[in-house]
Amino acid sequence: MLRRGRGSSCAVALDHLPPAVCKRVLMDVAAVARRSRTENFPVASLLFPRRLRPHLRAVYGFARLVDILGDEVEGDRLAALDELERELGSCYTGEPTWPVMRVLQPTIREFSLPREPFLGLIEANRMDQRIAEYESWDDLREYCRHSADPVGRLVLGLLRLAGEPELVAASDDVCTGLQLVNFLQDVPRDLELGRIYLPAEDRRRFRVTELDRPSAALTELLQFEAERARRLLSGGQVLQSRIGGRVGRAVGLFARGGLAALDALESARWDVFTQRPRPSRTRLALAAFVR
Predict the structure, then answer these.
(1) pTM of the predicted structure, to 2 decimals
(2) Is residue 8 part of a domain?
């Protein structure tokens, strides 16, 4: 059973959307959090001060909800994303009705988080409804500026460090690197969704013509993109050293989690078809204690 916030029934706020959309958007925070158990965010969040963890969960809950609306809702996903943007506006100018948004509003207010990162995440999922593939790395990087970088900027906002240009640049690199790792892990899944996140110019360079089966050419392409991701994830060292202490290690763990995922891909010999290669939670937990 879904727990609903005050005034958040479909009849009140979502009567113009299909029932499947209503069901998704009314998921409570705990339900959204359960979707993230295999990701490295929950492990990293344990290193943050206890007072910040609810705010991290609030931000992460929003990011997961956006992805669910953009990837899994049947019917008019753009309508669902439009409704979410209206709910986001209510966080700033009124009272939101969806459970995840009602939890997010106090975080936005306490840390004066700007709208732009949240809007960026919504726009990335709109792009997913319109764009099936990207010609160049520059094009894909622009997509990541919407789909990935805003999460890191919001985390810096919770640390009150969003005004530090060096940290913002390093955070953007790490977030894009993590997004690229996900693209490598999810080639078959994305193909089923009608999307390709390996740049067309790189596919031509390595003579990759098929993405639905293993090949030597695809392995070379995955290795090439993995090296690009490693370079981007090196920004985690900048974040860890500049922020320092336990919080610096927590932020650095996001990058180390991405590197661990790349190691898992390599150990699986770049086989993304048999299973989704990823590091174990034990591997991620051990990474949390690397200095």
Answers:
(1) 0.85
(2) no
Please give, one letter per residue, the 3-state secondary structure of 6-72: CCCCHHHHCCCCCHHHHHHHCCCHHHHHHCCCCCCHHHHHCCCCHHHHHHHHHHHHHHHHHHHHHHC
For range 37-57, the mean pLDDT: 76
Residue of 202, 118, 196 lying closest to 153 (CA atoms): 118
Q: What is the CATH number of the domain that holds 220?
A: 1.10.600.10
Side chain identity, residue 175: C
Per-residue pLDDT reduced to its tens digit, 150-162: 999 999 999 999 9
Residues 6+ apart with CB under 8 A from 248: 239, 240, 241, 242
Does 254 lie in the same domain as 222? yes
State pLDDT tens for residues 6-42: 233 343 344 455 555 555 555 544 566 555 544 555 5
In a domain, 35, yes or no: yes
User: Using an 8 Å Cβ cutoff, are 58 and 103 in contact?
Assistant: yes
